[in-house]
Write a structure and sequence with these properties.
It is a single chain. The longest helix is centred in the middle third of the chain and has 10 residues. This protein has a domain of 46 residues. With 67 residues, the chain is an all-alpha fold. 28% of the residues lie in helices and 0% in strands.
Length: 67
């Protein structure tokens, strides 16, 4: 059994039908959540003290900002 059996076929145009309806923030999250480097960053960040915005290693490097 393949380890990718649950993944949709990226070549299927119907798989992209919902994209135009996404807002900018939702589309950005969809891209970011698939980025393995982001997940490594998030896992490492959970183990460290808060990093000030704008500093290397902060969430701002990923385009994240919180009101």
């Amino acid at each position: 059994m393949s380890g990718t059996a649950h993944l949709p076929d990226w070549r299927d145009r119907a798989a992209y039908d919902a994209i135009p309806a996404l807002g900018r923030d939702a589309l950005a999250w969809e891209v970011l959540r698939r980025n393995s480097a982001y997940w490594r960053f998030a896992a490492a960040s959970a183990l460290t003290a808060e990093i000030p915005a704008g500093e290397p290693g902060s969430a701002g490097e990923w385009g994240l900002h919180f009101p």
